[in-house]
Write a structure and sequence with these properties.
186 residues, alpha/beta, Leucine-rich repeat, LRR (right-handed beta-alpha superhelix), 6-stranded parallel beta sheet, 3-stranded antiparallel beta sheet, globular, disordered N terminus
């Protein structure tokens, strides 16, 4: 995969139905070269499947994403194309990476209440308003993020992992009240 052009969108999908896989193949005819499907049940004891798909950014639009409703894990780091409209219907998402993402806003994620893991490293679009209702979150990365404050995380009582390195908006007072925290990176 070292010859893949740099202008790609990387989407990590942990579960997709046949309809979604067919759609992805239609969107990107070269997809079969880059799709790796692992049934991890046969490799180890983890009980999930995932597809790693790489596709030129020019071929993927919000409309293409709207029907991918079974996706549970999505990496839109450094995304320059997909907006709120593209991910709003992905309500089954459990893991979402919005590192250095400048397209997805509060409106795009506030309805993704099944999220358990969210990466907002160096993200300047998501604020307290976007995450305050994501109460299923167990892992939150706020590295170099100054948009999320105590107000945004105070109701995230299920957090077990929190990265607040280079975030000066989260105080010790709120962290002390988070009794489920197992790992905190400052």
């Amino acid at each position: 995969m070292s010859n893949i052009p740099k202008d790609i969108v990387k989407i990590i999908i942990q579960y997709a139905g046949n309809r979604e896989i067919i759609l992805l193949q239609d969107l990107c005819p070269e997809l079969l070269k880059y799709v790796i499907v692992y049934d991890l049940d046969e490799i180890n004891k983890d009980n999930y499947k995932y597809i790693q798909q790489l596709c030129p950014a020019d071929n993927v639009t919000d409309d293409d994403f709207k029907c991918l409703i079974n996706i549970i894990s999505l990496d839109l780091s450094k995304n320059k194309k997909i907006t709120d409209e593209g991910i709003k219907s992905m309500t089954k998402l459990i893991n979402l990476n919005l590192r250095c993402n400048n397209k997805i806003t509060d409106e795009g994620i506030k309805g993704l209440t099944n999220l358990t893991s969210l990466n907002l490293e160096s993200n300047d679009k998501i604020t307290d308003e976007g995450i305050k209702g994501l109460t299923n979150l167990t892992s939150l990365n706020l590295y170099n993020n100054d948009k999320i404050t105590d107000e945004g995380i105070k109701h995230l009582i299920n957090l077990t992992n929190l990265d607040i390195c280079w975030n000066n908006k989260i105080t010790n007072k709120i962290i002390k009240g988070m009794t489920n925290l197992i790992k905190i990176i400052r």
